[in-house]
Amino acid sequence: METVVEIRHLKKSFGKNEVLKDINLKIEKGENMVVFGKSGSGKSILIKCLVGLVQPDAGEVLILGKDICKLNDDELNALRKKVGFLFQSGALYDSMSVRENLEFPLRGNKTNTKEETEALVIEALKNVGLEDAIDKMPTELSGGMRKRIGLARTLILKPEIILYDEPTTGLDPITSKEISHLILEVQKKFNTSSIIITHDVECARLTANRMIIIKEGTSDITGTFKELSESKDETIRAYFQ
Ligand SMILES: Nc1ncnc2c1ncn2[C@@H]1O[C@H](COP(=O)(O)OP(=O)(O)OP(=O)(O)O)[C@@H](O)[C@H]1O
Ligand SMILES: [Mg+2]
């Protein structure tokens, strides 16, 4: 097995607020890791540490074998292209069309011709079943469609690792399920490894190969969906209700 993400003894505090105290985590190639944890437990901070958006206080973060704290800016930027990040807020640019939103991550890549860029945009939209939305504005789209376009924008750089921050939050149960299935399709088609932060039990059930629950800044509670949801420990089962 090939380990694509390894976190060792990660710590992060904000002033007196010790958010992450000792996080240890390994993700193998092609694996979906679901992260549960109460609001404010540090889930978003954790994945921001993985792409250098937040600087950890201590510990090691190895992405595709590289210690991200030891990389210079160029190396970090090159690595970031291999890690797709689907933000909690969705974050499409409302003043840009769907096409322009998808072209955005490609802008540094000056070797692409106009035709090549268009082909990449169309391919990414096809992956999420929304090729007809190419000339729409984000405000014309439903919440579920916006999430899909956000995912298409992440997929356009063909990342090896995808970090999903609450991909189904704010969606109805049926649309949530569609997004969960889309996450699975992406995993199968591209053999991506993912971290999926969610409060959605159904999303976890569908997508998780393994799970961790962040509690009191640690990552000691880990197992499959079945193991954790059927745990003898009532406090663990509570996350699944
Ligand atoms: N830039 C910051 N400055 C100070 N404190 C911060 C900062 N970012 C996050 N925090 C604090 O870190 C803690 C963890 O935040 P984080 O966003 O990771 O929570 P979360 O588990 O993702 O919660 P939610 O489920 O609500 O999204 C919170 O107490 C938050 O107030
Ligand atoms: Mg969060």
Q: What CATH architecture would you give?
A: 3-Layer(aba) Sandwich
**How many helices?**
9
Give helix and strand order, one letter per element, not per position: EEEHEEHEHHHEHEHEEHH
Provide mean pLDDT, rounded. Answer: 93
What's the overall geometry?
globular
Give the N-to-C terminal Cα separation. 33 Å
Structural class: alpha/beta
Strand numbers in spatial order across the main sheet: 6-7-8-3-9-10
Counting structural domains, the number is 1
Q: Look at the structure and give the CATH class.
A: Alpha Beta
Q: Roughly how many Å is the radius of gyration?
A: 18 Å
- Strand content of the residues, in percent? 25-35%
Measured as a percent range, the helix fraction is 25-40%
The CATH topology turns out to be: Rossmann fold
What is the count of β-strands?
10
Major sheet? 6 strands, mixed
Q: Spans of 5+ residues with little confidence (pLDDT < 50)?
A: none
CATH superfamily: P-loop containing nucleotide triphosphate hydrolases
| Distinct ligands | adenosine-5'-triphosphate, magnesium ion
